[in-house]
Amino acid sequence: xQTSKLPGKFSILTHQGQAEDMPWMELALQQAKLxxxxxxxxxxxxxxxxGKAIAQAHNAPVSLNDACAHAEIQAIRQACQTAxxxxxxxxxxxxxxxxxCLMCIGAILHARIGRVVxxxxxxxxxxxxxxxxxxxxxxxxxHPCVFETGYMAQESEELLGSFFKARRKQREQTIxxxxxxxxxxxxxxxxxxxxxxxxxxxxxxxxxxGLEQVCETLAERSSVLKAGQHTQQAAILASLxxxxxxxxxxxxxxxL
Length: 256
Description:
Blueprint: E1 3-5, E2 10-14, H1 22-37, E3 44-49, E4 52-58, H2 61-64, H3 71-83, E5 93-98, H4 102-110, E6 115-120, H5 129-137, E7 145-149, H6 153-176, H7 189-197, H8 203-209, H9 211-227, H10 231-244
Parallel strand pairs: 2-7, 5-6, 6-7
Antiparallel strand pairs: 1-2, 3-4, 3-5
């Protein structure tokens, strides 16, 4: 068993495929599928105590208009209500199909959950788990927690991959139907100039490059613009990154 031992209270282990964990991760995967059906990024979670699932939930930030409505947060809220205590304790195990982000790790530790079983680590938001936990190691308040990673990772990754592939395909068709790049959401004349400097002058240029590569290019340019205090155009390019990834249209002001 590979173990990454942090300086204090947290450990990161490679999950060893224990059969008793399968029904609970399958429950989390079912929740992830429900998220996808609702147009949410397919991430699911379940919390188990004393051999019983006391909560199951999935991603719902879009449908609830709630940035905090990640699968883990939703499940923790349910579990705390069921247990009648915001401290679930070391006997609680959280199963989640995708490695928790920094926000969700904070909620996990606040709830004093003792064990977290993780599916895959594929995400642009969650970063390196060890580095994320080191942030919390700097404080003395947290109780120990063990993270076991890589359990049923293939199933989790396939759900995410299929979801974003379908999203990108739909968005590709939308872009192919555009008469001009000026019809892109949030775009203005300066945005068109920025896109032209990057080699994108007509919608077909985006499709030939590939939307995934376009997103990487725009993200890099957005960072440069932000550093140069060109905040509006930086925000517009950031909004286009999400749009090209298949996410709903959002105002550029939300990216400031």
